[in-house]
Amino acid sequence: MDHLKGLLISIMGIGLVLVAxxxxxxxxxxxxxxxxxxxxxxxxxxNPLGFWFFFLLYAGGGIAVTVYALRHF
Length: 73
Fold this sequence. Notes:
Elements: H1 2-26, E1 28-29, E2 42-43, H2 48-71
Antiparallel strand pairs: 1-2
Helix pairs in contact: 1-2
């Protein structure tokens, strides 16, 4: 059972890193209750400080969750 939890948590962490990477490519990261709808989010052009804050939040969180999951495999 612990292997299943570790696998699911690592998938979640990798997903967060992938969201950060797609944001770096597109210049837009989702935030807020509507998720990936273009209206809710932060743009690198209009709010660069907020964009890089959310980028670090997504990437750092994803890496931390993935490392946690791999340590508990």
